[in-house]
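Work Package 3 committed the consortium to producing structural models of liganded targets before the mid-term review. Because experimental data for this complex are still outstanding, the team generated a predictive model from sequence and the ligand definition alone, so that downstream docking and mutagenesis planning could proceed in parallel. The input record is reproduced below exactly as it was submitted to the modelling pipeline, together with the SMILES string for zinc ion.
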Amino acid sequence: MSVSTVTALSLHLLVFIFCAGAGAGAGAPDFPSTSDEESQIERFQQYLRIRTAHPYPNYAGAVSFLSAQARSIGLETLTLEFTPGKPLLLLSWYGSDLSLPSLLLNSHVDSVPAEPSHWIHPPFSAHRDPHGRIYARGAQDDKSIAIQYLEALRHLKARGFSPLRSIHVSLVPDEEIGGADGHAKFVASEQFRRLNIGFVLDEGQASPTDELRVFYADRLPFSLIVNAVGSPGHGSKMYDGSAVENLMECAEAVARFRDSQFDLVKAGIMAGFEVISVNTVYMKAGTPTPTVSYFRRTCFLSFTFITLSLWGAQRSHIHGQEQ
Ligand SMILES: [Zn+2]
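The resulting structure, written out as C-alpha coordinates with the ligand in place, is given here.
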Protein backbone atom coordinates (compact mmCIF):
# COMPACT_ATOMS: atom_id res chain seq x y z
CA MET A 1 0.00 0.00 0.00
CA SER A 2 2.95 2.26 0.51
CA VAL A 3 4.10 2.48 -3.09
CA SER A 4 2.39 4.45 -5.78
CA THR A 5 -0.77 4.95 -3.79
CA VAL A 6 -1.07 8.51 -4.95
CA THR A 7 -0.67 7.56 -8.58
CA ALA A 8 -3.23 4.84 -8.22
CA LEU A 9 -5.75 7.00 -6.48
CA SER A 10 -5.37 9.85 -8.91
CA LEU A 11 -5.92 7.44 -11.76
CA HIS A 12 -8.90 5.98 -10.01
CA LEU A 13 -10.28 9.45 -9.66
CA LEU A 14 -10.03 9.84 -13.39
CA VAL A 15 -11.71 6.49 -13.79
CA PHE A 16 -14.47 7.76 -11.55
CA ILE A 17 -14.79 10.98 -13.52
CA PHE A 18 -15.06 9.07 -16.75
CA CYS A 19 -17.60 6.66 -15.38
CA ALA A 20 -19.72 9.35 -13.79
CA GLY A 21 -19.78 11.33 -16.98
CA ALA A 22 -20.60 8.38 -19.17
CA GLY A 23 -23.23 7.05 -16.82
CA ALA A 24 -25.02 10.33 -16.41
CA GLY A 25 -24.85 11.10 -20.06
CA ALA A 26 -25.86 7.70 -21.41
CA GLY A 27 -28.93 8.91 -23.24
CA ALA A 28 -30.78 10.25 -20.23
CA PRO A 29 -32.78 13.33 -21.32
CA ASP A 30 -31.55 15.47 -18.40
CA PHE A 31 -27.88 14.76 -19.11
CA PRO A 32 -27.20 14.74 -22.83
CA SER A 33 -23.92 13.04 -23.73
CA THR A 34 -21.03 14.83 -25.30
CA SER A 35 -19.61 13.41 -28.50
CA ASP A 36 -16.61 12.13 -26.50
CA GLU A 37 -18.89 10.28 -24.12
CA GLU A 38 -20.85 8.85 -27.03
CA SER A 39 -17.61 7.51 -28.49
CA GLN A 40 -16.66 5.95 -25.16
CA ILE A 41 -20.04 4.29 -24.85
CA GLU A 42 -19.82 3.02 -28.42
CA ARG A 43 -16.44 1.42 -27.70
CA PHE A 44 -17.93 -0.15 -24.58
CA GLN A 45 -20.78 -1.59 -26.65
CA GLN A 46 -18.34 -2.97 -29.23
CA TYR A 47 -16.49 -4.83 -26.49
CA LEU A 48 -19.75 -6.17 -25.07
CA ARG A 49 -20.75 -7.60 -28.44
CA ILE A 50 -17.74 -9.90 -28.46
CA ARG A 51 -19.00 -13.14 -26.97
CA THR A 52 -16.61 -13.97 -24.19
CA ALA A 53 -19.09 -15.88 -22.05
CA HIS A 54 -18.28 -19.40 -20.97
CA PRO A 55 -18.18 -22.16 -21.98
CA TYR A 56 -16.72 -20.96 -25.31
CA PRO A 57 -15.32 -17.47 -24.77
CA ASN A 58 -14.07 -15.73 -27.90
CA TYR A 59 -10.74 -14.69 -26.44
CA ALA A 60 -9.12 -14.11 -29.83
CA GLY A 61 -11.83 -11.63 -30.82
CA ALA A 62 -11.57 -9.78 -27.52
CA VAL A 63 -7.77 -9.59 -27.62
CA SER A 64 -7.89 -8.32 -31.20
CA PHE A 65 -10.36 -5.58 -30.24
CA LEU A 66 -8.55 -4.57 -27.04
CA SER A 67 -5.15 -4.55 -28.77
CA ALA A 68 -6.48 -2.21 -31.44
CA GLN A 69 -7.91 0.06 -28.75
CA ALA A 70 -4.63 0.07 -26.87
CA ARG A 71 -2.64 0.92 -29.99
CA SER A 72 -5.03 3.78 -30.77
CA ILE A 73 -4.23 5.16 -27.32
CA GLY A 74 -0.50 4.67 -27.72
CA LEU A 75 0.02 1.79 -25.30
CA GLU A 76 2.42 -1.06 -25.91
CA THR A 77 0.76 -4.44 -26.29
CA LEU A 78 2.03 -7.93 -25.49
CA THR A 79 -0.01 -11.10 -25.82
CA LEU A 80 1.04 -13.87 -23.46
CA GLU A 81 -0.32 -17.37 -23.93
CA PHE A 82 0.54 -19.52 -20.94
CA THR A 83 -2.19 -21.95 -22.01
CA PRO A 84 -2.94 -22.50 -25.70
CA GLY A 85 -6.11 -20.74 -26.76
CA LYS A 86 -6.22 -18.61 -23.60
CA PRO A 87 -4.36 -15.38 -24.36
CA LEU A 88 -3.59 -12.80 -21.72
CA LEU A 89 -3.18 -9.28 -23.03
CA LEU A 90 -0.71 -7.03 -21.27
CA LEU A 91 -0.73 -3.30 -22.05
CA SER A 92 2.04 -1.01 -20.89
CA TRP A 93 2.65 2.70 -20.58
CA TYR A 94 6.20 3.08 -19.36
CA GLY A 95 6.99 5.75 -16.82
CA SER A 96 9.94 8.11 -16.75
CA ASP A 97 11.53 6.32 -13.76
CA LEU A 98 11.68 2.60 -14.49
CA SER A 99 13.29 1.89 -11.11
CA LEU A 100 10.03 2.62 -9.30
CA PRO A 101 7.40 -0.06 -8.62
CA SER A 102 4.67 0.07 -11.22
CA LEU A 103 0.87 0.16 -11.18
CA LEU A 104 -1.19 -2.77 -12.50
CA LEU A 105 -4.81 -2.42 -13.56
CA ASN A 106 -6.45 -5.80 -13.91
CA SER A 107 -9.66 -6.90 -15.58
CA HIS A 108 -10.91 -10.28 -16.74
CA VAL A 109 -12.14 -10.79 -20.28
CA ASP A 110 -14.45 -13.74 -19.72
CA SER A 111 -17.93 -13.73 -18.24
CA VAL A 112 -20.39 -16.26 -16.91
CA PRO A 113 -22.84 -17.86 -19.37
CA ALA A 114 -26.01 -16.13 -20.52
CA GLU A 115 -29.37 -17.72 -21.25
CA PRO A 116 -31.02 -15.52 -23.89
CA SER A 117 -34.52 -16.70 -22.94
CA HIS A 118 -34.15 -14.97 -19.59
CA TRP A 119 -33.09 -11.63 -21.03
CA ILE A 120 -35.36 -8.81 -22.17
CA HIS A 121 -32.72 -7.91 -24.80
CA PRO A 122 -30.27 -10.35 -26.40
CA PRO A 123 -27.30 -10.67 -24.01
CA PHE A 124 -24.70 -9.85 -26.65
CA SER A 125 -26.55 -7.05 -28.41
CA ALA A 126 -25.36 -4.37 -25.95
CA HIS A 127 -28.78 -2.79 -26.41
CA ARG A 128 -28.97 0.76 -25.10
CA ASP A 129 -32.43 1.89 -24.07
CA PRO A 130 -33.73 5.49 -24.07
CA HIS A 131 -32.68 5.88 -20.42
CA GLY A 132 -29.08 5.01 -21.20
CA ARG A 133 -29.19 1.52 -19.71
CA ILE A 134 -27.03 -0.97 -21.59
CA TYR A 135 -27.97 -4.64 -21.50
CA ALA A 136 -25.20 -7.17 -22.02
CA ARG A 137 -23.63 -10.14 -20.34
CA GLY A 138 -20.39 -9.01 -18.77
CA ALA A 139 -21.33 -5.33 -18.77
CA GLN A 140 -20.73 -4.94 -15.03
CA ASP A 141 -18.54 -7.99 -14.52
CA ASP A 142 -16.09 -7.13 -15.87
CA LYS A 143 -16.03 -5.32 -19.20
CA SER A 144 -16.96 -1.89 -17.88
CA ILE A 145 -13.80 -2.01 -15.77
CA ALA A 146 -11.52 -2.65 -18.74
CA ILE A 147 -13.14 0.14 -20.72
CA GLN A 148 -12.84 2.53 -17.78
CA TYR A 149 -9.12 1.78 -17.57
CA LEU A 150 -8.62 2.31 -21.29
CA GLU A 151 -10.66 5.48 -21.45
CA ALA A 152 -8.94 6.92 -18.38
CA LEU A 153 -5.56 6.22 -19.99
CA ARG A 154 -6.80 7.67 -23.28
CA HIS A 155 -7.84 10.81 -21.40
CA LEU A 156 -4.47 11.07 -19.66
CA LYS A 157 -2.62 10.63 -22.95
CA ALA A 158 -4.75 13.29 -24.61
CA ARG A 159 -3.95 15.69 -21.77
CA GLY A 160 -0.24 15.17 -22.31
CA PHE A 161 0.21 13.42 -18.97
CA SER A 162 3.51 11.63 -18.51
CA PRO A 163 3.62 9.04 -15.72
CA LEU A 164 6.53 8.78 -13.35
CA ARG A 165 5.82 5.10 -12.76
CA SER A 166 4.94 2.56 -15.41
CA ILE A 167 1.27 1.68 -15.76
CA HIS A 168 0.29 -1.81 -16.92
CA VAL A 169 -3.11 -3.23 -17.77
CA SER A 170 -3.63 -7.00 -17.64
CA LEU A 171 -6.67 -8.39 -19.44
CA VAL A 172 -6.88 -11.97 -18.29
CA PRO A 173 -8.82 -15.10 -19.32
CA ASP A 174 -10.65 -17.66 -17.23
CA GLU A 175 -11.29 -15.62 -14.09
CA GLU A 176 -14.84 -16.92 -13.90
CA ILE A 177 -13.67 -20.52 -13.81
CA GLY A 178 -10.93 -20.07 -11.26
CA GLY A 179 -8.11 -18.42 -13.20
CA ALA A 180 -5.79 -21.45 -13.10
CA ASP A 181 -4.96 -20.99 -16.79
CA GLY A 182 -5.07 -17.22 -16.58
CA HIS A 183 -3.91 -15.02 -13.73
CA ALA A 184 -2.45 -17.89 -11.70
CA LYS A 185 0.11 -18.64 -14.39
CA PHE A 186 0.69 -14.95 -15.04
CA VAL A 187 1.64 -14.11 -11.44
CA ALA A 188 3.97 -17.11 -11.36
CA SER A 189 5.76 -16.03 -14.52
CA GLU A 190 9.03 -14.23 -15.10
CA GLN A 191 7.15 -11.63 -17.16
CA PHE A 192 5.09 -10.72 -14.11
CA ARG A 193 8.11 -10.55 -11.82
CA ARG A 194 9.84 -8.15 -14.20
CA LEU A 195 6.89 -5.76 -14.07
CA ASN A 196 7.84 -4.93 -10.46
CA ILE A 197 4.24 -4.28 -9.44
CA GLY A 198 3.77 -2.03 -6.43
CA PHE A 199 0.03 -1.51 -6.50
CA VAL A 200 -2.91 -3.27 -8.13
CA LEU A 201 -6.44 -2.19 -8.91
CA ASP A 202 -8.99 -4.84 -9.78
CA GLU A 203 -12.73 -5.08 -10.09
CA GLY A 204 -14.92 -4.06 -7.20
CA GLN A 205 -18.63 -3.99 -6.62
CA ALA A 206 -21.11 -2.78 -9.20
CA SER A 207 -22.72 0.51 -8.30
CA PRO A 208 -26.29 1.46 -9.25
CA THR A 209 -25.36 5.14 -9.00
CA ASP A 210 -22.57 7.36 -10.25
CA GLU A 211 -20.69 6.85 -6.99
CA LEU A 212 -18.00 4.18 -6.98
CA ARG A 213 -16.55 2.75 -3.80
CA VAL A 214 -12.89 1.92 -3.54
CA PHE A 215 -12.24 -1.31 -1.64
CA TYR A 216 -8.93 -2.26 -0.06
CA ALA A 217 -9.79 -5.87 0.73
CA ASP A 218 -11.19 -8.85 -1.04
CA ARG A 219 -13.23 -11.87 -0.15
CA LEU A 220 -11.48 -15.20 0.08
CA PRO A 221 -13.52 -18.12 -1.27
CA PHE A 222 -13.51 -21.54 0.28
CA SER A 223 -15.36 -24.73 -0.45
CA LEU A 224 -16.22 -27.50 1.96
CA ILE A 225 -17.48 -30.97 1.16
CA VAL A 226 -19.07 -32.94 3.97
CA ASN A 227 -19.53 -36.67 3.59
CA ALA A 228 -21.96 -38.12 6.12
CA VAL A 229 -21.93 -41.83 6.70
CA GLY A 230 -24.34 -43.93 8.72
CA SER A 231 -25.93 -47.29 9.18
CA PRO A 232 -28.53 -48.45 6.74
CA GLY A 233 -31.47 -50.56 7.80
CA HIS A 234 -34.61 -52.23 6.71
CA GLY A 235 -37.44 -49.84 5.89
CA SER A 236 -39.75 -51.55 8.39
CA LYS A 237 -37.50 -50.75 11.38
CA MET A 238 -36.34 -47.66 13.21
CA TYR A 239 -32.63 -47.28 13.87
CA ASP A 240 -30.18 -44.64 15.04
CA GLY A 241 -27.24 -43.11 13.27
CA SER A 242 -28.47 -42.95 9.69
CA ALA A 243 -26.48 -40.90 7.22
CA VAL A 244 -29.36 -38.46 6.83
CA GLU A 245 -29.52 -37.83 10.57
CA ASN A 246 -25.80 -37.24 10.71
CA LEU A 247 -25.89 -34.93 7.74
CA MET A 248 -28.81 -32.93 9.10
CA GLU A 249 -26.87 -32.13 12.27
CA CYS A 250 -24.14 -30.63 10.11
CA ALA A 251 -26.56 -28.84 7.77
CA GLU A 252 -28.44 -27.32 10.72
CA ALA A 253 -25.20 -26.08 12.28
CA VAL A 254 -24.25 -24.47 8.99
CA ALA A 255 -27.73 -22.96 8.66
CA ARG A 256 -27.51 -21.45 12.16
CA PHE A 257 -24.15 -19.91 11.37
CA ARG A 258 -25.48 -18.60 8.05
CA ASP A 259 -28.47 -17.03 9.81
CA SER A 260 -26.21 -15.38 12.38
CA GLN A 261 -24.19 -13.75 9.61
CA PHE A 262 -27.17 -12.81 7.49
CA ASP A 263 -28.94 -11.28 10.51
CA LEU A 264 -26.05 -8.83 10.88
CA VAL A 265 -26.56 -7.72 7.29
CA LYS A 266 -30.35 -7.49 7.60
CA ALA A 267 -30.00 -5.43 10.78
CA GLY A 268 -27.67 -3.04 9.02
CA ILE A 269 -24.86 -3.78 11.49
CA MET A 270 -22.51 -5.07 8.82
CA ALA A 271 -22.35 -4.85 5.04
CA GLY A 272 -22.78 -7.91 2.90
CA PHE A 273 -19.09 -8.03 2.11
CA GLU A 274 -18.09 -7.88 5.78
CA VAL A 275 -19.65 -11.16 6.89
CA ILE A 276 -18.85 -14.75 5.99
CA SER A 277 -21.30 -15.98 3.38
CA VAL A 278 -22.09 -19.67 3.20
CA ASN A 279 -24.35 -21.22 0.63
CA THR A 280 -25.22 -24.85 0.07
CA VAL A 281 -24.40 -25.64 -3.51
CA TYR A 282 -25.63 -29.18 -3.93
CA MET A 283 -26.55 -32.37 -2.14
CA LYS A 284 -26.00 -35.85 -3.39
CA ALA A 285 -27.74 -38.69 -1.64
CA GLY A 286 -28.63 -42.29 -2.02
CA THR A 287 -27.60 -45.77 -1.14
CA PRO A 288 -24.53 -46.68 -3.13
CA THR A 289 -24.09 -50.01 -4.75
CA PRO A 290 -21.97 -52.53 -2.80
CA THR A 291 -18.97 -51.73 -4.99
CA VAL A 292 -18.77 -48.16 -3.71
CA SER A 293 -20.05 -48.68 -0.17
CA TYR A 294 -18.03 -48.05 2.92
CA PHE A 295 -17.37 -51.16 4.94
CA ARG A 296 -16.90 -51.25 8.67
CA ARG A 297 -15.89 -54.22 10.81
CA THR A 298 -17.32 -56.77 8.46
CA CYS A 299 -17.97 -56.64 4.83
CA PHE A 300 -21.66 -57.30 5.46
CA LEU A 301 -22.33 -53.92 7.00
CA SER A 302 -22.43 -51.15 4.44
CA PHE A 303 -23.01 -47.46 5.02
CA THR A 304 -25.00 -45.01 3.02
CA PHE A 305 -23.36 -41.67 2.55
CA ILE A 306 -24.53 -38.22 1.60
CA THR A 307 -22.44 -35.40 0.33
CA LEU A 308 -23.17 -31.80 1.21
CA SER A 309 -21.19 -29.24 -0.70
CA LEU A 310 -20.87 -25.71 0.60
CA TRP A 311 -19.35 -22.65 -0.95
CA GLY A 312 -18.50 -19.62 1.04
CA ALA A 313 -16.50 -16.48 1.09
CA GLN A 314 -14.71 -14.69 3.82
CA ARG A 315 -13.35 -11.21 3.93
CA SER A 316 -9.59 -11.06 3.89
CA HIS A 317 -7.50 -7.97 4.26
CA ILE A 318 -4.96 -7.70 1.52
CA HIS A 319 -2.87 -5.14 3.27
CA GLY A 320 -3.59 -6.22 6.80
CA GLN A 321 -4.93 -2.96 8.08
CA GLU A 322 -7.69 -0.51 7.40
CA GLN A 323 -6.82 2.88 6.07
ZN1 LIG B 1 -15.49 -10.33 -12.17
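Reviewers should note the following from the model. The chain is about 30% helix and 25% strand. These observations will guide the Year 2 experiments.
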